[in-house]
Design brief:
By secondary structure, the protein is an alpha+beta fold. It folds into two domains: about 1-145, no CATH class; about 155-220, 2-Layer Sandwich (Beta-lactamase Inhibitory Protein, Chain:B, domain 1), CATH 3.30.1450.10. The chain is about 20% helix and about 35% strand. It contains six helices and 14 strands. It has helices spanning about 1-5, 35-45, 125-130, 140-145, 150-160, 170-175, and strands at about 10-15, 20, 25-30, 45-50, 55-60, 65-70, 85-90, 90-95, 110-115, 135, 180-185, 190-195, 200-210, 210-220. The termini are far apart.
Length: about 240
Amino acid sequence: MELMRGLTAEYATVKAPLPRSKKPLDFDAKGTWDKQKWDEAAKELGPAARIGDLVQVTHVDIEKDSIILEINGGMKRKGSWKDHISIGMGGATTPISNGGNSNAPSGTTIALRFNASIGEITATDVKKMLAPVLDFDKRSATEQYADTLPPEIKQAIEQKKPVEGMDRDQVLLALGKPARKTRETKDGVDFEDWIYGQPPGRVTFVTFSGAKVVRIKETYAGLGGTIAETPKPIQ
């Protein structure tokens, strides 16, 4: 059947948070859903996928007035949302997470509900109906994730620059994995330095306190040790 062939194994990028749920999440064919019920499901069982995650339709059931779509294996699957975000450096991409799973953190099920018999409908029609929550176009998960960020953070990532206020995932998107990391405690406060570059040349120190970047320092080893100006913090 064209409808099942056109939906099964298809990938989509999440546009609204998807909760895990013991029962299928109702989604009206007119493009609306009960956000309060979805929020309650998320509070009970946690998220199945966050905005920007790449998910896959793993099974489709067609009923008289509903289409049931299993996402990432339904409630059977778990993982990490970071598995879908890759960073690009010099034409190559590297996942933020070390996990090899290409799916979202875990699974759930969506029930596309019609007020009457389904009738003649195509997979393309279903994808358009689900567009408020699932984007079936070919944009990458990284692009979708970047679209959810504050403009200042998004711009810094595009320019491959770290700025104060970024979290670790955002620094990874901007600069990639550090050459090495160091940790120290000063006056009872823990700091972690991510170090980029090798002497001679520019070496960048990105310092975290807790989850956020609190300081950035650039030195030019072998070139006089000049320290570059730290970019302005994100407000």
